[in-house]
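check these tokens.
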Amino acid sequence: MESGKKRRLNRIFQKDNRTVIVPMDHGVSIGPVMGLVNMQSIVDKLVLGGVDAVVINRGIAKSVDTGNAGLIVHLSGSTKHCPDPNSKVQICSVEDAVRLGADAVSVHVNVGAKQEDRMITMLGNVACECDDYGMPLLAMMYPRGPSIKNQHAVDVVAHAARLGAELGADIIKTNYTGDAESFKEVVRSCHVPVIIAGGPKVETSREVLQMVSDSLKAGGAGVSIGRNVFQHENPTKMVKALSALIHRESSVGEAIKILGESE
């Protein structure tokens, strides 16, 4: 791997080759939801918790100080109001991200969506640009569309992850398949690090922490969890709990104690 890309990846992954990423690109797709009204405030809370990197859009990256956290600039988007919200288009370039001082860029692809062909073309083109600039690429690969009956089924998740790796991504973000044994198949068939998405906001922190713990046992390289972190009542503690699981191999019970919650 060329030195520029390697150096940037080292600012996202710790020495254990794992990472805690919090995506906050939701302002494009669903607007200024709870937790993302004041972006500097939430970034400060995440940095205080020890987050390894954040994902934000270019306009936010211009004005927010991410401190010692890695900066991942998101390059694609759509809104919930368009006729096909699953169709992501490119809204920023790799060159723009370089000017912003990004440590990586990210692209969202919905595998199985009506506009899948356009999205994988975008991913392939961005991957080539990233190689030119020595910029790591995080591909958010989701099985999502008319032909997908179960977004967490191991066959479609493994296919989505492998597709992203085949097209040149350096990190794959995808759905957790529900248990460690099936997720092992996803990790085993993908030659780049695989991290899990958090999905919709859940009822309890234990659900999130248990999912993360199980994904690590399957060989996962960490997380890219948004709403279950930035909408948590204490985002700083939630990042600390995730970091304990991911970087210190703490138990779920120990992570829950960091949150100050009862088992």
Q: What stands out?
A: The mean pLDDT is 96. The two ends are 44 Å apart (CA to CA). Residues 41 and 211 are 27 Å apart (CA to CA).
